[in-house]
Every structure is written in structure tokens, then in C-alpha cells.
Amino acid sequence: MTIGRPRWDQIQGGASYGTVAYSTGTNVTRGNLGLPYNVSTIVNQNKSSLKGAEVNWQHMFDNGFGFRANYTYVKSDLTYNNAGVGPQFALIGLSNSANLVGIYEDNKLSVRLAYNWRGQFLSTVAENNRANPGYVEPYGQVDLSVGYNVNENLSLSLEAINLTDEHQRQHGRTDMQVLSVTTGGPRYMLGARYKF
């Protein structure tokens, strides 16, 4: 028997045994799976629109200095209603963001000092299988990368992430409902590369 794309017509699951139906055109075949199971699937919901704009600007001066700037703006009505209690149609991960990078480069030295920022965004619409939102609050950090060419064969590098020791917070329906606070501290990495 050839089974086409499955259609979950009848499912009784959880900790009990159940029956599942497969659709093969107009015929439906039913059979006992003989095992406890849970089934979850993605279902298309409502439709909506998402609008945005991005601006980039990069410039290098004659003396080796330069900068790069970026701003991304997004707008949508796919937001979460914090007063609602049931499942909602909301888009997670949607936020504005910006980057500003100072640059210096010559034959020996390369330096980049960057500030990266992201606005608040919805990170989840369910917590413990209940309709509870989670938001990541606005976050910005400063990073530094330095490269130095000792000679044609040897180059050294330093990378420093989160120089200002920023922490990241997540909250629920209000900013008073703190879900988590994460701090990783500054991180430093040294590297060396030698070409034979």
C-alpha cells in the first residue's frame, strides 16, 4: 500500500495508545500504532505584514582611520498582547538593531572597536506549555579586535568581547517579572598565525 502525505485526522495520544489516520487521496487508512505517542506539527495561522528599512554607511579617511555605521528598523503588528491569556499570533525575534564600528588600518596594524546594540524583542510566547511571553530587554556591548603583522610570516591577534561587562535581562509580561539575568563578563582571546 502506498501512503501519501500524512494527514492527522484522529489522534488520541499522550500516555495512552491511539489511532492515527493516513490520507491516500480520497481513501483513509486507520491503524493502531501500538505505542504511546505525542504528535506536534506546524500549522499555518493568520497572515500579516512586516516592514523595515536598513541604512549602512562606511567611510575610510586617507590617514588609515574610518568608520562603519548600520541601523535596522522593523515594524509589524505581529506583537504580543500582554493582557491576553490564550495562544496568540506573534513574531519572535523582531527588533531594531544598530552597530557603530571605528576602524584603523595600515600595513602593520588593524584595529576595530565596535558597539553593537539590539532593541527589546519577544523571545518566546509560551513558558512551561502555557501562554506566557518572554522578552529580551535592550542590550548593547563593546567589542575590540586588534591584528598586528610582525613580519610576512607571523601575525598576532587580540579579541576582546563585552569589554564593558554588560548583562542581559529577560522579563515576562512586565519588566518587573524578571525571568533571567545573564552575565558572561568580558572575554579575551589571543591568537598567533605563522605562514611557512
TrEMBL record:
Principal location listed in the UniProt entry: membrane
Domain TonB-dependent receptor-like beta-barrel: 25-163
Subcellular location: Cell outer membrane
Record has Aminoacyl-tRNA synthetase as a keyword: no
Keywords recorded for this protein, A-Z: Cell outer membrane, Membrane, Receptor
Transferase is among the record's keywords: no
Protein name in the entry: TonB-dependent receptor
Organism this protein belongs to: Telluria mixta
Organismal lineage: Bacteria, Pseudomonadati, Pseudomonadota, Betaproteobacteria, Burkholderiales
